[in-house]
Design a protein that fits this description.
Length: 243
């Protein structure tokens, strides 16, 4: 009888002890008592519930991470397609503008060249040199003409569709791979001769367009005294066109 009367007091003491213990204990992620999680006395059915919950949480997190990775992959592919379309359309506009300006460019340069020759023949070398310098400035500023880059190795797949104007002197010295489309590490001046854009020793403006070479096979051929070589897939390729 005395034992039964003392039982409520015992419960109060146990509750107080539990409160004091939990106040000084760092809570776990699931806010479960450490004693319940790790006690050897935990019933098997309770341990089973916890393990089942942990397994479910792990699986849900795995699926969510997989779904997020899939979403990012799709988004990156869509961005790549949009970027390619943007570059292609931008290149088309630039190419059309360049073709429209080509007659003006040729006429302007022909007339200035004639003036330069006249000043040279009359001994007015300073004036002739000034015209030559101005010609170079006009090509760079108005038409975006750049000097021969050697090859297109510095360009990447993000540049596919873009076109560039280079002042190139045709040559038969150097390596080139492909026909009509050339690997990015091919020498531009040699490719220009092989494609018929320039002759050996001829100086001219060449439009170089970056194209995708990742799914292209580069077949070699012999053209205009240049022998190009075969090559497999190459991430970046280019085509040349006389301006």
């Amino acid at each position: 009888m005395n034992l039964l009367l003392g039982f409520p007091q015992l419960l109060v003491q146990l509750a107080e002890r539990h409160r004091l213990t939990t106040q000084t204990r760092t809570p776990t992620t699931m806010q479960l008592d450490d004693d319940l999680l790790f006690s050897d006395e935990m019933p098997a059915d309770a341990r089973g519930l916890l393990e089942e919950a942990e397994s479910t949480v792990t699986e849900v997190r795995r699926k969510s991470e997989q779904a997020i990775a899939g979403i990012r992959d799709i988004a990156e592919r869509e961005i790549a397609v949009i970027r390619l379309r943007m570059n292609t359309e931008e290149a088309t506009v630039q190419r059309d503008a360049s073709r429209e300006l080509s007659p003006l460019l040729r006429d302007l340069f022909t007339r200035l060249k004639s003036l330069q020759t006249n000043y040279t023949q009359t001994g007015m070398l300073d004036e002739a040199l000034a015209i030559r310098a101005r010609l170079r400035t006009l090509r760079a500023d108005l038409f975006g003409v750049k000097s021969d880059p050697g090859s297109m190795s510095d360009f990447s797949s993000s540049d596919v569709g873009k076109s560039f104007l280079f002042e190139v002197v045709g040559t038969n010295e150097g390596n080139v791979w492909g026909t009509d489309a050339y690997t990015g590490d091919s020498r531009v001046a040699v490719a220009a001769v092989h494609s018929g854009s320039l002759r050996v020793g001829e100086r001219g403006l060449v439009r170089v367009t970056i194209v995708d070479g990742s799914e292209r096979l580069f077949d070699g051929s012999e053209r205009h005294g240049i022998r190009s070589m075969d090559y497999g897939n190459y991430s970046v390729a280019f085509q040349t066109e006389r301006v």
